[in-house]
Amino acid sequence: MQHPHAASRDQYATGVTAATASLLKRLRAKAPRVHCVTNAVAQNFTANALLAFGAVPSMTLSGEEIGEFVASSDALLVNLGTFDRERREATAIAVDSAVRHGLPWVLDPVFVDRVPQRAAYARDLIFLAPKALRLNAAEFGALAGEKPSREKVAAYARAHNLTVGLSGEIDLIADGERAAAVGNGHPLMAKVTAMGCAASALVAACLAVEPDAFIGTAAAMIMTGVAGEMAAARAQGPGSFASAMIDALYTLDEQTLVDHAKFEMHR
Amino acid sequence: MQHPHAASRDQYATGVTAATASLLKRLRAKAPRVHCVTNAVAQNFTANALLAFGAVPSMTLSGEEIGEFVASSDALLVNLGTFDRERREATAIAVDSAVRHGLPWVLDPVFVDRVPQRAAYARDLIFLAPKALRLNAAEFGALAGEKPSREKVAAYARAHNLTVGLSGEIDLIADGERAAAVGNGHPLMAKVTAMGCAASALVAACLAVEPDAFIGTAAAMIMTGVAGEMAAARAQGPGSFASAMIDALYTLDEQTLVDHAKFEMHR
Amino acid sequence: MQHPHAASRDQYATGVTAATASLLKRLRAKAPRVHCVTNAVAQNFTANALLAFGAVPSMTLSGEEIGEFVASSDALLVNLGTFDRERREATAIAVDSAVRHGLPWVLDPVFVDRVPQRAAYARDLIFLAPKALRLNAAEFGALAGEKPSREKVAAYARAHNLTVGLSGEIDLIADGERAAAVGNGHPLMAKVTAMGCAASALVAACLAVEPDAFIGTAAAMIMTGVAGEMAAARAQGPGSFASAMIDALYTLDEQTLVDHAKFEMHR
User: Fold this and answer.
1) How much is the pTM?
2) Is the distance from CB of A52 to CB of A223 less than 8 angstroms?
3) Which domains can be identified in chain A, with CATH numbers?
């Protein structure tokens, strides 16, 4: 099963793992501000995940203030959970502010598989050039019209000129030119609300310090997965897991990342 | 103090305890979707309680989406905490959708004892035929105009054609024909915000898999109480208790329920 | 470095520490109701902190209900995080209700350093006579136009006829006549979202049982700091710290306060 370029691919994967460790260091040094338009269920956990990771969260939605909050931030997250008129108005201003200030922004199209109009709205947002799209298989299916596979995810990323970070038992990352898989993570992650939302916020934090969105997205997903494994080792269920996850994001160090990352380039 | 029908009553109680254990199994197999109109303080804890229990929560309030969310759910919770215009509009659409699709819905009239117009609104909602009403003594007093007792709770349930689940040191459950008490629980449950709100969501989850609302409500209250006892055994205060409660809902098994349930039929 | 009045100052400090211990007892006996206009990120943690401390939180924002909620409360908190139109309208009614009923209210001007119009709004609110203003150095700078120092904080408190509680490595408390420092606390407190917001809610809870706002604010900041130290001793990161903090507020006792308080009068 060895690809002709397997050796250089393995080398690249090792490089991404090293880049992840260095990115964590840069992130903690910079303490980037990440503004989040996110759902009511996820706000607290997302803010704590960002703080533990080394970033500075803000969550204001008011149309009168959000433009300035984004302008003084380093990255923006737009998460479509509990979407409503207030969040729709906030998103319009926030994305406009991000685009004008050249800030990276990340889209997390929560539950687009449950309501067609939310999927249509997400498709419109994708025209406003998010750097990364983090989602799960059901959400990918609703946006792309087909179940995700390595090839479909890569094709979608290429067609929309963004990096896709697809969460699942194996995470897939693709930007149209590169594709990879992350094998880290733990089943308890699916039993805590807002875990995916927080992961998307960590992608935004990584893009605040890493211009290569493929590397930034891969780094965030590796770190989230490794932290999940560390947390699961201490947890007695999803309640203690959630708080151990925040601890793990805080104590995560470069050596642990290098030792535990399961990252593989696909081509 | 033995009632002439004490033996058959005890047998029925044993049957409810067994039904609770089997309901938990069915619930985890089905993973019912529970849509929640709930208060801002309770959203995160409620979502985590539902996930730990084996259900799939959604929390959208937007009038444009909530009808479809409810239509693709298996049960609905309406909780009146932090009630506002958005939640009032959401509730109208959500309850209408639940009624049209024949889904069970549960009302939790939070803090109706603090504001008369909220009590009036709750009384209006009760005309829309919730299957169960979960509340505490002060809230019962505000709705029924008198302090709860076994007889008053049974009379209220009969008059309004629903199941009442009244939380307290001893929980009372009544549907007009049957009445029972649950002795499980722990005082720390009253020191964690949203504990009652989450319990109401678990009632909704149980009604998603159990057509007999008396059995479903009793099962939810037994399971909440037993989980509370398991959590208290590990807790050092209400903070660690809250996360241990989520763990306990996740690890709850049929044998533990049968061993720990304190359930008694009143007639 | 001994001040001529050092001895009486030390005596006063010892008196405040004793007053703190007695205040905690009174607070738990009264279980004051504290209504909170607070941000979406902080609502759950703030409610749990208040419950653990011995108070009864409510969080409704609806203009139709908030006046009555405040009227039946013992203190009000206004926190400017995630401020929006709904919170602005709620604040107008809530503060009016507090003033009319003679209830103490506390202002926490979150993130006024990020948006000039939020600072302007906070300045307007200060004309409505909050008893205490709890904030951090950046927020003080945005309101006062200069970095905080012992003198600046005291001058600001005097000019605005309120008690300032400034959080930092060393907390400063001043009411224009008296000034003090609290040396309790732990760096993990800055890594948990809503920790400052919860501290402000505890100030409101203390003012509900203590008419001297300087003493009440000092007591809340001492207790928050001591609880933070107790929590840190058990924590493995900010996730477990947050839940240990709630435990510590619940288990805090008078002897621990007397033993651990680091309180110093400045004049």
Assistant:
1) 0.96
2) no
3) 6-265 (3.40.1190.20)
